Amino acid sequence: MGTRQVMSRTQLLIRILKHEKVICDELIQLCTPEAQVSLSCTLCPRCTGMCHTGALKIRKSGKHKVLSYDRTLCTACGLCVEFCKEEAISIREPGLVSSKRTSCGSPVFYQ
Fold it and tell me: In whole angstroms, how far apart are CA 15 and each of 30, 32, 73?
């Protein structure tokens, strides 16, 4: 009787995600933190300087600067929230957990 190899969960997920962009996007939405920035953001470099993963960056968009956010890099450590003098950033952890601070701000630009 021959032996049968069973794929690990990780291998199976990678195999599925390579072929299913929609599923990949949905998993990212469900499993990664979401950041929101209110209109009180002045684009000072405090949050980007404290972000140890590089999830937050200030970049140029035409003649303007914007705060960009890569949710796949965010660990929801909260340093950006704590160091924001304007209290403009809120982080919502994955799932249905609400953030410490809520804001009615516009979403940041996702990469």
Answer: 19, 20, 21
58 with 66: CB under 8 angstroms?
yes
**pTM to 2 decimal places:** 0.64
Residue type present at position 58: I
- What is the dihedral angle through the alpha carbons of 99, 100, 101, 104, rounded to the nearest 10 degrees? 20
Kindly list the structural domains of the chain, giving each domain's residue range(s) and its CATH number in brackets, ordered by start: 33-110 (3.30.70.20)
Counting Cβ atoms within 10 Å, is residue 88 exposed (0-12), middle (13-18) or buried (19+)?
buried
pLDDT digits (tens, 9 = 90+) for 72-82: 888 889 999 99
Tell me the CA distances in angstroms from 50 to 11, 92, 106, one per residue in order.
34, 18, 21
